[in-house]
Amino acid sequence: MTPLLAHDRATALRAGRGAAALAFAAWALIVIGALVRAHGAGLSCPDWPLCHGQLVPDFDARIALEWGHRLFAGTLSLGVAALGFALLRRRALRARFGRLVGVIAGLLAVQVVLGGLTVLLGLAPWTVTAHLVIGNSFALSLAWLARDALDAGRGVERASHSFSTRLAWLACGLVALQMVLGGIVASHFAGLACSTFPLCNGDSLAPTLHGPVGLHVLHRLNGYAVALAFAGLTWQLRGTGAAGRLARVGLALVLAQVAVGAANVLLRLPVEITALHSALAAGIVLTTGMLARESLAATRTVRDSVIAERHALGGAR
Q1: Does the model's pTM come out above 0.85?
Q2: pLDDT in tens, 15-55
Q3: Which domains does the chain carry?
Q4: N or C: less crowded end of the chain, CB within 10 Å?
């Protein structure tokens, strides 16, 4: 890819820092959303986009929490619009980042619609789960844009190492599945369907795969699979720079998440632990997404090496 001119590189650096700040804000919004749900405040504003028919309603604690969540989301949307304008107004940056900015804008639009539907449909499980999945995808897309823009601004074009990517993609798939399962467990109020840990209701690891207990069991079993995948990645990617560091961070987050998940059950879903569980989950998604980015870069590195080797052999003949 053609290197950027100095002015475009400076703009890319500023945009990268802005995207990183917005990614952090999106992560914080996910945590606030978890607090809204944990406090039973999801329908404190029973209408949308107004709250009790007003732009600024009369507040109690729950209304303030839900309305504040909406206000934070609106402010974040304005930040995304400003970021998109900064990147799309210059041709070189538009060519590099236009597609990803479009993805971010699309995810934001879907998330806004899902937020409204979640209220208007009375916290229907599919809307709650979809809202969680799209929210995490939105935060990850902002983090991805931040890394791309910062690398472009610093003149970093390609990963300097390669590694086998199969296990990395397996971990990505397991984390995506875990995110969906977590949303389903929360939206079906199955968080205490297994009331003991590590066994489910004192019986076995998996007494059934049906009903609320089955949902909870699947969430636990897949969580163990995620932990094993990251343990394997940490071993496989030792000494590989950024990918190795991400694998170690991911493993630490996953192990912490298992412990927090156990505490959530044993302490009967206290608000603070529930919020921490959501915060760690969003952190795992972000870390896994950045690992996927490293995996794609490694794949390109291997592909370019093969092409260069073939050209060299062809020239030698």
Answers
A1: yes
A2: 999 999 999 999 999 999 999 999 999 999 999 999 999 99
A3: 1-157 (1.20.120), 161-317 (no CATH)
A4: C
